[in-house]
Amino acid sequence: MPKDLKDPSLKKVAYYPGCALEGTGHAYNKSTKAVGKELGLDLVELKNWNCCGAMEVKNIDPNIQTYLSARNLSIAEDMGFDTVMAPCNGCYHNLKKAEYDLANDEGSKEVNARLSGKAGHATYAPGKVETIHSLDWIKRAIGEEELSKRVKNSLKGLKIANYYGCMYSRPRHIFPEKDKGEGSESTSKPHFMDDLLAAAGAENVDYPLKTACCGGAHTLSDSDTSTKLVLNLLTTAEACGADVIATECPTCHTGLEMHQIRAEKVLGRKTNVKILYFTQLLGMALGLSAGKVGVNENFSDSRALLKEKGLG
Amino acid sequence: MPIHEKTLIRPENLVTHEHLEIDGVDVSGHWSTFIESRAVTDYNENLQEEISALAGGENIHRCWQCGSCTNACTVNAINPDFNPRYWIYLIRMGMEEELLRDKDIIWQCVSCNKCTYACPRDVVPEGVMKATAHWLELKGHTPESPSTIFDDGFSQQVFDTGKIEDSRVMRGFFKGTGQSLTQPWLVAMVTGLIKRFPLFYLIRMGWQTVFRPKTRGWGRASRAIHEYVEEVEAANRAALGLDAKGAK
Predict the structure, then answer these.
(1) Same domain for A171 and A260?
(2) What does the pLDDT read at residue B181?
(3) Does the CB of B12 have a partner CB in chain A at under 8 Å?
């Protein structure tokens, strides 16, 4: 085990990318893997994983959504892992929620046992596998101190609004490890992304909309509402002096990019803020090229800004 | 009345008299604006029970009417008529007619969970909004909302193949809601990408469109889920006193 890891047990974890990271969020997948490799961390993808149901399946029936995540957790257990890392807020949220519901809701438990039995795999029992976010993964495995030592290309001079969205911290009861004081994540004012990017040299602005909603669940079905929400996120980031909104969720990221186009029409001018995944920023700070972390796959074109700041 | 709920006074219930004298006192002009009083007689005594029978609505009876949900609400900040506290009140009182006045906006809940986070009584208002939107559709008060069309298309893909593919979900949604695929923002996104020409990205998107992603060994899970969905749908309809599927 490498000595420089803060928590050596996280050197190798199960990886659940989820559907979005194979589609529109591919840059997040690419940059997460690249950062892991650069930091000497190993990701082993879950075999034959399925969709977590996102924000949609629960509206058909929440127990099916619980089953979908339970199946993924049972795969992690089968593969011998006690930790699964999910970079997508939706996947992360749903795995956490399944964990909670299977421990506390008889109905979910019963449906999960029934569906698992019919599908022919082991019924997942809560408590066997811990779900972590990519933020937890880097923060806990490496930590800010070690990370700052490995920075080759500081993000100095880059002003960042850290945007966490809804699913990372709400509702509180499915995240029992949060709000536990010093060192733990806060659900009302999350800071893990701020901590990591600060360690990489960035200047974080005090962004009041860290956990505001981008309208991601209705990004297509109620576009006008989503555009209004994104317009607010963008102009507030500008008012805070941010060059970049750093994201940690493919739905937020794509929503911000897509509705930036629509919001600028409403606003009648261009907005100056660019949108990048936090893993893309960390990757470039660790010395990876813009291409290696998929910057050219983003709709929000940040190449000129990155060049100006001497990054990528 | 909290200031954020002023919109609850509907314009049609406000009456202003040009000239009005009450008990010999002239109250014309500003002082003659009244909220019309009315008697509600058409209670649906089963309303709370029906909503709580649908997924998400289970805890509605716990509500204390503190209004934390509406205060925290993302959509309320954009549209003051979007008022979860008030709708929960109406449902608990059985005031169906009053609830139906807002039937076309209830589906707009974005599931940000701010209400559920703020609620001191574990009502899960987000779930109640979803259950109410579902109830409106099952009862035939509203057509399927764009959100429901999206949820259905998305979920069917998951149930059938175990995974979803973005462009297929999008195409299905635009088709289902009768919209054109050439949305101006979509065109702007695609042309922006092509200009930078990340060839690999475009090839991969094309590949996924032709060869849809699937979860290997999903067949049995798919059948089990489809069976269960039928069971849930029948139970929902029975709880609302509706006939078997199809007869709305």
Answers:
(1) yes
(2) 81
(3) no
